[in-house]
User: Fold this.
Amino acid sequence: MGNFSVGFNLRDTVQVLSLKGELDAHTASELEAAIQKCKDDGQYRIIVNGANLHYISSAGLGVFMAFIEEVRNEGGDIKIAALQPKVFNVFDLLGFPLLFNIVDTEDEAIHLFEKQN
Amino acid sequence: MAIPSSTRFLRKVRKFVVRHAIAADLPEKAVEHVKMCVDEACTNVIEHAYDGEAGHEVDIAIIIDASRFTVCIRDHGRPFDRSTYSEPNLVELTKAGKSGGLGVHIIRRLMDHVEYQTQGHVNEIRLTKYRNTNDVPIG
Assistant:
């Protein structure tokens, strides 16, 4: 699946997932596995950094929808940061800004988690 | 072009469609829309019409005329039953931990015209963008 990868970076108590490449029905399972790993590690405060994400289809968006309720039930959240405009447009088209914090930078997302403490 | 019924070929399809959409001088935004909708339609064919089974074929053809850029996607799987489709409710889907139903919604929102046809064992979806936005039918 050479055209998509997820990088892990722990910032204090927040797990940052940096997405790179194209997220479609083929590569969505990699994001699924990454969020599952966060869960397995008991890490429910998650930031998805989309600075290097060039494309997302509904299969990619579906991964966020599949996990968010469970993550929030555990007192955590998935916050989305640094999306490229054309990728943000897809989130926006489906009404994601109503359900998710989508912010311009990773630092802003960290700040939102700090405020929730 | 024809691809086997596997999501690993979606990227190849997107590249194919983008190349032709750019050559047809579609505006950048329309190119993005067509790329995404063809991806969604092919994903639906692979995952629903063929139930994720390998060994089938998805045919993708592009028709360009003076006013339209149309992508025809054909399969020999289970036809899409439009009567069972309802507009997805993001809040309800999320609460249920479900993620389906968004692809058709995206296609309906982003394309200028969408047509479904089944003849014999062949299903076809036609996705059209008008090359001149003044040609988009009102309503």
User: Anything to note?
Assistant: The beta strands of chain A are 4-11, 14-23, 45-56, 77-81, 102-103. The two ends of chain A are 37 Å apart (CA to CA). The longest helix of chain A spans residues 58-73. The CA atoms of residues 81 and 108 of chain A lie 8 Å apart.
